[in-house]
Amino acid sequence: MQIPNTATGLLYEVYNTLFPIVEEEMKGWEEKAAAIPDKELQLQALASIDSKKFHCQGGAVFALLAGMKYEKAIRFIVAYQTISDYLDNLCDRSTSLDPKDFRMLHEAMKDALRPEAALQDYYAYRSEKADGGYLEKLVLTCQAALKDIDDYEQIQEYCLELWTLYADLQVHKHVKVEERIPRLTTWYKEKKDKALGLSWYEFAAASGSTLGIFCLVSYAMGGKMTASLPQHIMYSYFPSVQGLHILLDYYIDQKEDEMEGDLNFCNYYRDDVELLERLQYFIHLAEDRTRDLPDSTFHQFIPKGLVALYLSDEKVESLREGKQVRKRLLKTAGMSGAFLHYNIRLYNKVKLHSVGNSFPPTEC
């Protein structure tokens, strides 16, 4: 498969090649989730698939970097993102506030990145345990996909480094409310060398994305990995692309998080002006850092696509200054960002009125 170098070509492959496979993969996991014996675990597994499906769809874009192994890349991406979303629900919406529980749950994401790792009792510190093997199957699916990669060891340490940041964040942000900020700020001080001048909440946001892992794995599956590329990807995606990704995710969820009492990193900016300025900063930083990557045109689409995707969500309409922020950020993302945004909104509108996973993108 050729990596598209135009926005039209990218959308065509996404809608017509990637999304149907994502749909099939997610349908299989949804069926397995529905068979989970424990009702609380079943509820959270099904809710995570229903409300966060677009995470898997967005992540699947990186499968284009895997060449002819794009289907295997999608299988890994969907399974790994489904673990992430399921565990996020278990920490966010379920019955525990125990950091030991959160740490043990996220060992599943670590083991998923270690093809030879033995499975563990991921529910060791919570009362709900009977998931019918659901989480183990997700881990084994990821491991099986990675076993097929030649020289996986070239990227494993970088994947595990990103996992470590991700797991630390999930533990610190889901404990008792009064412990969250002290834990996050202490963690930030411990990781100053990785924070690169960001605020504690921006560093935390950058730690909460799986995109760097998807990029590394997809390149490796496509046999395109070199000795220097993993470090180059790390530099390009953390914190810039990953920070933009999660800040946009938090931006659209502000009202929902307020209602649920959840931590939202966008709340820590001085005002909407500073929030907008920092989002624009992350867009520019992401564009600058991805410019020298192989397949740079593709990587330049990622920050623009993130802006296009998240600002197409109807939740933006209800946010204070939401329409104005969207207008400014789309201007920052440029013509291709606006083009992607228009087509995503059109796609979503068509999906509401028809059955199927693809339609040809509007020509530009």
How would you describe the overall organization of this protein?
The chain has 364 residues and is mainly alpha-helical. The protein has helices spanning 7-34, 39-51, 53-59, 70-93, 99-105, 107-111, 134-147, 153-173, 177-190, 192-195, 200-207, 211-221, 229-252, 254-260, 272-290, 296-310, 322-353. α1 runs antiparallel to α2 (39-51), α15 (272-290) runs antiparallel to α16 and α16 packs across α17 (322-353). The radius of gyration is 19 Å and the shape is globular.
The biggest beta sheet is recorded as: none
Strand fraction: under 5%
Tally of DSSP helical segments: 17
- Number of E-type strands: 0
Termini separation comes to 22 Å
Q: Output the structural class.
A: mainly alpha
Cα-atom radius of gyration: 19 Å
Fold topology:
Layout: H1 7-34, H2 39-51, H3 53-59, H4 70-93, H5 99-105, H6 107-111, H7 134-147, H8 153-173, H9 177-190, H10 192-195, H11 200-207, H12 211-221, H13 229-252, H14 254-260, H15 272-290, H16 296-310, H17 322-353
